[in-house]
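ok, trying the design again with the full structure, not the truncated one.
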């Protein structure tokens, strides 16, 4: 679903990401997939230590709230697929044995 870090403008793939629970488990929050989002390590730590927060109302898009009170909708990463649409696969490194 997430396709990588969902932070606005981040291009890290899902292999670089961690799951963030928008409802803290330590405070009795749910651990459902619908209440979690993938974030790279840098943005996950920025979220926890710099006053940022993420919210979601039901099944709507995730909202990123900055410490100053502004909010940005976190669009699905599928919109970034165009960036890799014309990239050819890497050349073969090994030749098959004859």
């Amino acid at each position: 679903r997430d396709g990588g870090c969902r932070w606005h403008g981040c291009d890290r793939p899902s292999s670089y990401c961690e799951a963030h629970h928008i409802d803290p488990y330590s405070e009795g929050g749910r651990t459902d997939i619908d209440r979690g989002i993938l974030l790279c390590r840098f943005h996950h730590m920025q979220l926890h230590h710099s006053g940022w927060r993420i919210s979601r109302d039901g099944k709507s898009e995730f909202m990123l709230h900055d410490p100053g009170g502004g909010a940005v909708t976190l669009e699905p990463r599928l919109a970034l697929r165009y960036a890799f649409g014309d990239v050819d696969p890497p050349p073969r490194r090994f030749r098959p044995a004859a």
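Keeping the full-length input from now on. The mean pLDDT is 83.
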